[in-house]
Structures are given as structure tokens and as C-alpha cells.
Design goal:
Largest sheet: 4 strands, mixed
Strand order of the largest sheet: 5-6-8-7
Order of helices and strands: EEHEEEHEHEEHHHHHHH
Radius of gyration: 25 Å
CATH topology of the largest domain: Methane Monooxygenase Hydroxylase, Chain G, domain 1
Number of helices: 10
Structural class: alpha+beta
Distance between the termini: 33 Å
Number of strands: 8
Shape: flat
Length: 346
């Protein structure tokens, strides 16, 4: 779906005595916040095509300038990590940390670990009072559907590991790896959305041809973040209580395959919009949420000490997140087609 489907053809107009001109599509001009008198810069490609974009605003920070984080000192654990992650997520390529007092070994290690947890980020300069991090990811190489599919695979792996813990009563060694990988993909997803919101040509290249779709993508990413947290919580709780299950895990063992299959179906409905399929998946989401709620009710008082009840509640909340994604699948199907679906009366 294009920006209000503007015509791709423009008639060349005479401008003054010896100049010619063409008009710009109104939706694009509005998206770029262009007004009469604003400047446009362009580059000519080898094939004769032109690349247009608004000229930089006078006084704005050059795109190559690092994002500067400066303080007298950083003493509180976690602050540096959050600042770096935040700068990465909103699209900064270079991040410079400066302090008056030398960074302690703990803060240096925190910075190093944070860089490792972000896809494409490396430390390129390190001094006692200064650290520079640089992102080397080309945003045009990571499409939104591709990243969502990667996140789906990580979530499915969480469920697989949870099933293993329940069936074998043994600790999984993949919890930390899956958590870190999920955090990397989610941070990159958020970064891509921020960058796409400022560059519509990038938005089209990474899978969001209509700027309005970026709002939908943000809802999708938020639901995926919530699912990752819930699946992480579930696996952590069962990992810690693997030797105390005492047969109470049967309900969860029955619920997990259904949850895994539904996760795949919901993501597929999101990526391949079909109104008929989206409605079916949405109904399945409701049924799964009810099943998980009933399972939690049956476990009340029986499995509170070994974590099974808590894990079941978390998975029920996960089913609720999947229903949100199913709603988004319906919205996308409605916006991209003209199907008529016969819905049975309740």
C-alpha cells in the first residue's frame, strides 16, 4: 500500500523563461514536513535517476557527530547501559561517553557488555575518561518482516527449552543465550522503526511502504517484547524449580505445544495478510487464552511452591499478547484487501 496511492507520473512544467519543473507528491511532501521555500538536496545516480531529500536544518547536529553522554562520574550500576541502549534504539550510530573522573573497572565492563549486547556495535576508542562506541549496521539490510520472523524463531526456542525442562526435570543451558539474542533483535527492531520514521525511503526498503504502518509495527514490536519477557520468566522459574515439579507439570506440557503452534500461525497471519485467516487466528487466540486461564485456576493452591502456577499465569499473559498480534493481523488484512468474511453468530 502506497502513500494514498499517488500517481507515479508527473508532467514537466515550464518555470520562468528557461527553467522547467515537476511537482512533488503531496503525501511525500507532508511526510517530509516540506513547505514552500524549503530547500531540497539531490544526488544524480549513474543511471540518470535522482535521489531527493530535504536539506539539513541550519544549526542541526551533523549526522556523523557522536551522541555525547557527559557526566562528572557514573556511579550507579545500569545507568550507562540504559543510556547506551537508548541512544542505539533511537538511531545514533556513534555514542561517546565522557566523564570528569576515570571510569571504574565495573563501569568499563558494563559498557563492554552493553556493546556486546547490541547488534553491530563495537568500542572504537577507550580512555580512562572517554569511551566511544560505533554502530556498523546498515539499516537497509534488515527488513522488518525478516526481524519479526527471527524473533518468532527465538520465542519458539524458548518454548522448546521450556518443554525440555518439564519433560526431563533438567536445567537448560540456553536461557542466557536466548535472552541475549532476543534483546539484540528487539533493540534492532526498535532502532529500525525510529530510523524509518525519519526516512520514508528507508521505511519502504525495509518493509513499510506506508508511513502509517509504522504505528502498527510499533504495536507488534511491543507485543514481541512482552512475549520475550514472559517466556523468559517462565523458563527461569521452571529452571529454578525443576526438581520440585512432582507431577504438577502435566497441564503445562499439554499447553505448550498449542501455544507454540499458535505463535507460528499468528506471525504468519501478520506477514501474509488474509482476512479469513486473520479472523480464524484471532478466534484461536481467544480459545488459547481461555484454556490457559482455566489451567491456572486448576493449579491454584497445588503448584504455587514449585513455580508451575506462576509459569502458567505467565503463559496465559503470553496468550493475551498473541491475541493483540491477531488483532493487528485483522487490521492489516482489512487495510490491504477487500475480502468478505462470513462470521458465524455466537
Amino acid at each position: 500500500m502506497a502513500w494514498a496511492t499517488p500517481s507515479r507520473e508527473r508532467r514537466v512544467l515550464k518555470a520562468g523563461h528557461s527553467s522547467i519543473a515537476v511537482t512533488l507528491p503531496k503525501p511525500w511532501a507532508e511526510a517530509m514536513n516540506l513547505h514552500p521555500g524549503d530547500l531540497i538536496v539531490f544526488d544524480q545516480n549513474d543511471d540518470g535517476t535522482l535521489f531527493l531529500k530535504p536539506a539539513p536544518v541550519p544549526g542541526s547536529v551533523p549526522s556523523g557527530a557522536p551522541y555525547l553522554v557527559q557526566a562528572h562520574s557514573f556511579d550507579t550500576p545500569g545507568v550507562l547501559e540504559r543510556l547506551i541502549v537508548g541512544a542505539y534504539r533511537v538511531g545514533h550510530d556513534a555514542i561517546e561517553i565522557r566523564t570528569d573522573l576515570p571510569l571504574t573497572p565495573d563501569r568499563v565492563e558494563e559498557t563492554v557488555q552493553t556493546a556486546r549486547g547490541l547488534l553491530g556495535v563495537s568500542i572504537v576508542a577507550q580512555e580512562p575518561t572517554r569511551i566511544v562506541l560505533q554502530n556498523f549496521v546498515d539499516p537497509s539490510k534488515y527488513e522488518l518482516p525478516q526481524l519479526v520472523q527471527r524473533m518468532k524463531m527465538i520465542l519458539v526456542a524458548f518454548i522448546d527449552e521450556t518443554e525440555e525442562v518439564l519433560e526431563r526435570h533438567s536445567r537448560t543451558r540456553r536461557l542466557t543465550t536466548l535472552s541475549e539474542e532476543g534483546s539484540k533483535v528487539l533493540a534492532l527492531l526498535v532502532r529500525q522503526l525510529f530510523l524509518a520514521s525519519r526516512d520514508w525511503s528507508l521505511a519502504r526498503r525495509i518493509g513499510s511502504p506506508d508511513p502509517r504502518q509504522l504505528l502498527e509495527w510499533r504495536v507488534v514490536v511491543h507485543a514481541l517484547e512482552e512475549l520475550a519477557d514472559l517466556f523468559n520468566e517462565t523458563l527461569t522459574v521452571l529452571n529454578d524449580n525443576r526438581s520440585k515439579l512432582a507431577g504438577t507439570e502435566v497441564t503445562l506440557i499439554e499447553l505448550l505445544p498449542r501455544l507454540k503452534e499458535h505463535l507460528k500461525e499468528v506471525v504468519d497471519a501478520l506477514m501474509r495478510p488474509s482476512l479469513d485467516r486473520a479472523c480464524e487466528v484471532y478466534q484461536d487466540s481467544i480459545n488459547l487464552w481461555r484454556a490457559s486461564t482455566e489451567a491456572a485456576d486448576r493449579l491454584k493452591g497445588l503448584a504455587r511452591k514449585n513455580g508451575v502456577y506462576r509459569a502458567t499465569v505467565a503463559l496465559g499473559r503470553g496468550a493475551s499478547c498473541l491475541s493483540v498480534l491477531a488483532e493487528m493481523a485483522i487490521d492489516r488484512a482489512v487495510s490491504t484487501g477487500h475480502e468478505t468474511v462470513m462470521v458465524e453468530a455466537a
